[in-house]
Amino acid sequence: MFSFESYINLPLVWGGLIATAVLLYVLLDGFDLGVGILFPFAPTDNCRNRAINSIAPFWDGNETWLVLGGGGLFAAFPLAYSIVMPAMYIPVICMLLCLIFRGVAFEFRFKANRSKKLWDMFFHFGSLGAAFMQGVILGGLVQGIEVEGRGFSGGAFDWLTAFSIVTGLGVVAGYVLLGATWLVMKTEGETQGWARRAAQYILVFVAMFMGLVSLWVPFLDTSIHLRWFDASVLPWLLPIPVLTFALFVWLFVSLRKGAEYAPFLCSIGIFALGYLGLGVSLWPWAVPFAVSLEQAAAAPESLSLMLVGAAVMLPVILCYTAYCYYIFRGKAPQDATYG
């Protein structure tokens, strides 16, 4: 009888699918969270209208990938889910509350008159809080979780460390860069000029935080240190920092030269390479540095059955997402048209 597990490594496949879903969420929802963080600093109300219209067709669909990543972790790696969630309850709840406030504010600001500024601030702080909490969750995972047996054995605030605060600030800066370069691509005139200046400003902070985290991570665990500083594997890993530096230079030059599409593509590349670097550091852990992918995986029969569903639904979601971005291509309108 045919079985997937006889031919492919199911935990590895599902680990790759979940990692891809999280990356797509970071890239796609990252730019609209970045627009929300930048929102109150726009020079005029017309600029704010154009900024929010640029993300209006996409923002709720982008969060599909967060649901897919979280749901996939629960279904494919239940042991990892049962350890990670108790360790991250507080930042996860805070993130979800911020996303809720942000979503409500997004809808209400288009109907409000006297309270419009209030909803604008909710939209801003919801975006800022969600971005920061996502970075804190990332930092809490990367630094490791205390595990005893098959359960979380640490305290409620183990995630709150200097490293997680730095990663939180780094993610905020990175999302602002994505949002600013998105606006450079999707707007024109005054809004585009403001977004270009914002991107040039925040680029310095993104480089600073990315460099700091990259230097910090190898000293969180001996296995990571050995991996990155092993002379035998260094030639294979060296392209990651080299390409990242090249993309930073290209991004800076493209912003100075007035390019519209290159800055956003460079920002995506920088995020993708940073994500790849973290993946290299944390391989093969589902819960760093306690539970591997193989140990955390569900039964092969469950993974096989879910893989059939994923093989059908993932192409549908990808095609629908690509179609939406194609339909709403071009510059965003200035008028408040959403809703």
Task: Please tell me about this protein's structure.
By secondary structure, the chain is an all-alpha fold. It has one domain (11-327): Formate dehydrogenase/DMSO reductase fold. The protein is built from 15 helices and 4 strands. The chain has helices at residues 10-38, 45-55, 59-62, 64-76, 78-87, 89-108, 116-142, 162-186, 189-216, 222-229, 234-237, 239-257, 262-282, 293-296, 300-327; strands at residues 147-148, 151-152, 285-287, 291-292. The chain has a two-stranded antiparallel ribbon. A two-stranded antiparallel ribbon has the order 3-4. β3 (285-287) and β4 (291-292) form a beta hairpin. It is globular. It starts with 9 loop residues before the first helix and ends in a 12-residue tail after the last helix. 42% of the residues are buried. The mean pLDDT is 88.
